[in-house]
Each structure stands twice: as C-alpha cells, then as structure tokens.
Amino acid sequence: MEKLKVGDRIPKFKTVNQHDEPVSSGDLKGNKTVLFFYPKDDTPTCTKEACNLRDNHERLIAAGYTVYGISPDSSKRHRKFIEKHSLPYDLLVDEDHSMAEAFGVWGEKSMYGRTYMGILRTTFILNEKGVITEVIEKVKAAEHADQIL
Fold first, then answer.
1. In principle, which of 4, 16, 58, 125 could form an S-S bond with 134, CB 3.0–4.6 Å?
2. Per the residue annotation, which of 16, 35, 46, 60 is the catalytic one?
3. Domain ranges, residue 85
C-alpha cells in the first residue's frame, strides 16, 4: 500500500496500548493527534526520538496534541520502555504490523548490506476529524517535537 498523505483520512484500526487497554481509530476523533511510527523500543535513535517527545510533551499538549507512539513491540516491552524513560504518552502495539502496512510505513530497509522489512520511521499529524494534516518522513530524532510544532 502507498504511504498515506496529507488530506487522507486515517484507516480504521483496533489495537492495545502498553496496559493492554483497547485503542481504536475512533478514539482519536475530537483531538489533534500525533502518531509516530518507530522501529523498536529502547534502540538508540528510537529512544532519542521518544525522549525528545517526552521532554517537550507539555508543549505538545499546550498546542492541543495527543501523542501516540507505534511500533511492532509487545505491550510488555512497551511498558518496560515507558518505565525506563518515564514516557508520559501511550505506546500502541502493532506486532503484526497491520497498522504500519495500512499507513504505508512498512517497507524494505537495509543495514550493513542486508535488506529486510520494517517500520519506516514516519510521523502523521491528524486534525480532530482524523484527517492527516502533515506527514514527517525525515524525522530528526533529537528535534522531533520542534518538527511537529
């Protein structure tokens, strides 16, 4: 599937957060939302990105945003990541990468000459109606909140 773009409505989804509580696309309506897709909990760049959003969380809330991180990690792994780094927002489980596929951010990557499938680090900013108002593909992990704001 193609990556979603500005003006697209987000696809319907149902998943759980780090506490195994259900979260669906319908829950996002009525709020401006930041959905940041990242490859893996507790890896250097993902941690830098998550902590930048943590450190700027009050600014994001003041701008009216609700923040969710999404990766293929389990809820247990998400809980450990949140506890270790005091993350103030929910992390959503996408173990089967169905959300990443629906948003068009599951694709071929390469490292050290090896190709594999994984999350293409991307952030989607949504309006209150669940319509994408911005897509950030070139995420700067240490400056990500500034990119959003």
1. 125
2. 46
3. 14-148
State which residues of the chain have pLDDT below 50: none
Output the six-digit token pair for 127: 């309006």
Reply yes or no on whether 51 is catalytic: no
Give residue 51's pLDDT: 98
pTM: 0.95
Total number of domains in the chain: 1
> Is 2 inside any structural domain?
no
DSSP 5-47: -TTPBPPP-EEE-TTS-EEEGGGGTTSEEEEEE-S-TTSHHHH
Q: Quick check: is 1 in a domain?
A: no
Structure tokens at 21: 């509580």
